[in-house]
Amino acid sequence: MSKAISLSLAAAIVVSGGGAAARLATTQGTSSRAEVAAAHESVAIIVNNENKLSELPIGELRRMLLGEVTRWPDGRKITIAMRESGQPERDAVLRLVCRMNDQDFTRYLLQAAYRGELQGGPKLLDTSMGVRRFVFNVPGAIGYVRGDEVDGSVKVLRIGGTVPEEPAFGLTLRAR
Amino acid sequence: MMTIKQSRRFSYAVACSIALVMLAGQPTSAQQTRTPAADDRALVEQLLKRVEELEQQVKALQQSERGAPADASRSAESATTVGLSGSTQGSGDMRDVIAPAGLGALQIRGFSDLDFHAAQAGDQPNTFSLGQLDLFLSSRLGTDFSTVGEVVFEAGENNAIGIDVERILLQYSPSDMFNVAAGRYHTGIGYYNAAYHHGNWFQTAIGRPFIFRFEDDGGILPVHGVGLTAQGRIPSGGAGLRYLAEISNGRGTRLPGDEPVQNVVDENGGKAVNLALLARPASLPGLQAGFSVYRDRLRPAQAPSIAETIMAAHVVYQSPVFEQLNEAIFIRHAPADASRVTTTTSAYSQISRQFGRYRPYFRYEYLDVPAMDGVFGDDIGRLYGPSVGVKYDAAAPVALKLQYDRLTGRARSRTNGLTAQLAFTF
Q1: In A32, A143, B290, B341, which residue has its Cα 20 to 30 A from B237's Cα atom?
Q2: Is residue B135 very low, low, confident or very high in pLDDT (cuts 50, 70, 90)?
Q3: Range scoring the smallest mean pLDDT among A77-86, B43-52, B242-251, B307-316
Q4: What pLDDT is stored for residue B90 in this prediction?
C-alpha cells in the first residue's frame, strides 16, 4: 500500500514538474539550458484557456492585482489566484508588479476594502498545481506559477511583450 | 470530502472487488460443501443484482454531476479568500444553509485607539482619551452586489458613550465604469474624506486635518451624506480618469444643535450634488489629482436661504514608502438676499516617509472662516500651524504615534500640545 502511494506521489511530481521547461527540452530540441533555467527562475502569468487576451501591459496587471480593474474586456469578472504569503513567486509578483512587499499589499487590500473599493480579495491556494487547477476551472481567473510549472491546461500571457522562456522576461524570482 | 469522480471510482472498485472476492471464493466453497449448480446460479444472480445496484449509483452520481451548476463543479478545491486582513478568510464560495443563495459571509473588522494628551499650560488637563471603537462590516451579496458599513462606539465630551452608524451602503458594481451605492457614505469632497474613514490605524497622523473633522467633532464640511453615490473609470488610456457623482440630503442648518447629517428627514426638497473628476496616471502609480464641486441650498430658520458651493482640489502621491498629500478647499456661502457673501479658505499639506518601522511626518494646515459667515458664525476664525510626529509600526496591526501640534487661532485644536496614540486593528 505504502509503495503504491509512493509511486503515485512520484508520478505526480513528474507530471507537475514536466511543464514548459520539459517541453522546451524535449519537443523543441533547440532550447538551451539557459532557456530552461530562465523558465525555472521566472514567474508566468496564467489565465484560463478561454480568455481571449494573449498579452497584458504590466501596469494593467498591477491594477488587476490591486483591485482597481475588476473586469476583463469582455465584461467577465476577474478572479485573482495567489499563493499564500512567504512563497517566492508571490514575493516576486508583489515586488515587481505592485512594487510592494507582502505587508504593504495586505494593508493596501484592507484599506481598499475599507473604502468600499474592493469587493472580495484574491483567492489563496496552497500549491502551484492548485493555482493552475483554479485558473483552468474558473474562466475569469488569473494567477501565476513558475515558468517551468506551466502546462497546456492554462494560457500564459505575454507580459511586456515577452514570455517566461525568453531571457528578456522581466518577472523573475531573482533580479537579473 | 470525496469528489464525484472519486466516488465513481470507488463504486467501480467496490463492485469489482465484491465480484472478484465472490468469484475467487466460489471454487473453494464448492469444493468444501459441494454446492449444487442451482446454488451457483443464485449466487451469480445475486452478484449481478449487486453490480446492477452499483451501476445505478454510478449513473445517479453522473447525473448529479451533470446537473450541478458549472461554477460549483468547476470551483477550485482549496481556494480561500484574502479579504479584510490578508489572513485567510472563509471560502469565497461558502454558503450558509440558512442564508438566501448568493449571500456571502458577513466579515467584521475592528479599529480602535487610545490617546494620551499632554496639554500645554493653561490648556486642558493631561488626560487619557478613549478613541472610537469602529466596527467595519462587509459582505458580498453575489457577483455584483455588496455591502459595507461602519458602526462606531464613541465617548463624547461628557464621557458618555454613544453609538453612531457612520456608514451603511449597498453597492452595485456591474462594471469598472459604473458603480453605484445607496445609503450613508463619506462624501467625495476632496481626497481625505473618502480615503480615510473612522479607523485611525490607517492614518499616518493622529487625527484628520481640521477641515475634514467629523461633524460631531467640530468639523465644518458635510463629511457624511445620505443618498446615492456613483463612480467609475472613464475610458482614457494612460490618463486613468475617473468620475464621481453624488446626490444627498445635504447638511442640516435649520436650528443650531440639530444633527447636521440628515439621516431620515431632509429640511428641504432640494438635494445636494457633488461631482468630481479624478486622474490616476498609469505612468505614475500612486499619484492622484482631482477636482470636485459640491452644491446645496441651506435653509436656516428665520434667515434667507444660503447657496453653498464647495470646491476642492487635490494632488496626492502615496506609495508604501513615500506620501505627500496636498489639498485646497473653498466654501462659498451666498445668502439669497445677496448680503454677506463669504468664502472660507482651507488648505493642508502632509508629507511622510517610511524608514523601516518608523514613519516621521509633517503637516501644515490653514483655515480661515470669515467672521460674517452665515453658517459657521464667528466661532472658528483663522486657524493655522504645523504638526510634526512619528508613527511606529509596533506590529502589523498595531501603530504607536507621537505628535506635537502647534496650531494658532481661536478655534485651535483641542489636542494642541503633545499627543500619543496607540491605534490598532483586530
Answers
A1: A143
A2: very high
A3: B43-52
A4: 37
> In this structure, are B129 and B19 located in the same domain?
no
For chain B, what is the domain count?
2
Asked whether residue B50 falls in the same domain as residue B135, the answer is no
pLDDT class of B243 with cuts at 50, 70, 90: very high
A49 touches B: beta carbon within 8 Å: no
Contact B327, B340 (CB under 8 A): no
Contact A107 B86 (CB under 8 A): yes
Q: In this predicted structure, what is the pLDDT of residue B57?
A: 75
- Which residues of A fall within a CB distance of 8 Å from B191? none
Of A106, A120, A126, the CB nearest to B140: A120
The β-bridge partners of A33 are none
Is B192's pLDDT higher than 60? yes
Residue A41 is predicted with a pLDDT of: 80
The answer to whether residue B67 scores a pLDDT higher than 70 is: no
pLDDT at A5: 36
Across the interface, whether the CB atoms of B176 and A71 are under 8 A apart is answered: yes
Nearest Cα residue to B183 out of B135, B215, B225, B146: B225
Residue at A152 is within a domain = yes
Q: Which amino acid is present at A153?
A: S
Q: What is the ipTM of this complex?
A: 0.74
Distance from CA of A92 to the nearest CA of B (A): 16
Written as one string, the DSSP assignment of B27-78 is: HHHHHHH---HHHHHHHHHHHHHHHHHHHHHHHHHHHHHHHS-HHHHHS-SS
Is A73 an interface residue toward B (CB < 8 Å)? no
Q: Do B340 and B414 sit in the same domain of this protein?
A: yes
Of residues A99, A109, A111, nearest to B285 (C-beta): A99
Strand (E) or helix (H) holding B271? none
Which residue of chain A has the CA closest to B179?
Answer: A117
Please give the C-alpha separations between residue B36 and each of B25, B33, B47, B178, B406, in angstroms, as whole numbers: 15, 9, 17, 80, 108
Domain that holds residue B36: 4-74
What is the model's pTM? 0.76
Q: Is A104 helix (H, G, I), strand (E, B) or coil?
A: helix
- Minimum CA–CA partner of B81 in chain A: A123
Q: How far apart are CA B348 and CA B187, in angstroms?
A: 18
pLDDT tens-digit profile of B322-332? 999 999 999 99
CATH (domain of B342): 2.40.160.10
CA distances from B13 to B17, B21, B63, B277 (A): 6, 12, 19, 65
What's A136's domain CATH number?
Answer: 3.40.190.10
Report the number of distinct structural domains present in chain A. Answer: 1
Nearest CA in chain A to B134: A114
Chain A CB contacts of B176 under 8 Å are: 69-71
The mean per-residue pLDDT over the stretch B250-265 comes to 81
